[in-house]
């Protein structure tokens, strides 16, 4: 997958086993979060870190950030985390001299970043009270909302989501903020989650209609917004989906990037690529790392996802290629162009 570097980190004393993938640093230091997961094998972890770090290259490039793509995975049960364990990981990050910058991802939180930050400067996503940018989720949700509006403009001829039937899968950090934007705009919102209490609480608080997780793919809806897991767009679900647009915050929505991107194109579903529209979070942590963090500017930068998404959907239509492919080509073109600029002193 064209990576620059894959680092294997191991520490006997704390039991730390981690991988750091640096995919491309043409635009700047490789920024991407650290995920902790009890992988079934080392091979599985390697595949994950390679895939995720490549995705960050494209995400950061399309967001207009001067940051490359990287990601780290820590192998094992999150219960293993201790101060020493996290600081040992921080030492490994520091050893790369700023080629890789870490942040939170699955099973890692802002207080973990504080421990990592005791050993390295190359960490971002710290709590607001510690001078960080705080929770990135509202920014991510805003970007998803912008991307959804762009996809709506393409599919329905108007960016307005008023009266559109939108199904949001997952009422977690991203889902709940997205629902607020949609309700405010007068959309007809249906929501689901595997945790019934959480689902009912959000439905009650927002006025959205709660539905069972199992029926989401069969709903009569205009827009499907995956905001839970990856790989929900696959051989089984594409046949069932009746929506005109897919736009959501979840990472890696297409189970098979090439195959399922093409199937969506053939079915006439407008797909807003996930790594393009869920970049608000990385825009937020990137701004924190690069210095002079300003929440208002972060939201302004995230708003641009609307124009970027529309441009990519137009390219996809003109060239009759899947939107995912159009997005990757656009990201690669920026990396190549800026790489040449950097050759001059
Ligand atoms: P979260 O854990 O807060 O929320 C996910 C929600 O999905 C949970 O409420 C969970 O119960 C629910 N869920 C899980 N499986 C489900 C299923 N089968 N059906 C319905 N609901 C299900 O996570 P989050 O931070 O909101 O992130 C959501 C997605 O967006 C993830 O894929 C994440 O990688 C991605 N993402 C998040 C951010 C961010 O800023 N938080 C940034 C970029 C991408």
From TrEMBL:
Protein name as annotated: Leucine dehydrogenase
Residue ranges constituting the Glutamate/phenylalanine/leucine/valine/L-tryptophan dehydrogenase C-terminal domain according to the UniProt record: 134-343
Alphabetized UniProt keyword annotations: NAD, Oxidoreductase
Keyword Oxidoreductase listed: yes
CDD domains, per the entry: NAD_bind_Leu_Phe_Val_DH (cd01075)
Family the entry assigns: Belongs to the Glu/Leu/Phe/Val dehydrogenases family.
Pfam families (UniProt xref): ELFV_dehydrog, ELFV_dehydrog_N
Entry annotated with the keyword Cell cycle: no
Top-level division of the source organism's lineage: Bacteria
Source organism: Algoriphagus halophytocola
SMART domains, sorted: ELFV_dehydrog (SM00839)
InterPro entries membership: Aminoacid_DH-like_N_sf, Glu/Leu/Phe/Val/Trp_DH, Glu/Leu/Phe/Val/Trp_DH_C, Glu/Leu/Phe/Val/Trp_DH_dimer, Glu/Leu/Phe/Val_DH_AS, Glu/Phe/Leu/Val/Trp_DH_bac/arc, NAD(P)-bd_dom_sf
SUPFAM superfamilies xref list: Aminoacid dehydrogenase-like, N-terminal domain (SSF53223), NAD(P)-binding Rossmann-fold domains (SSF51735)
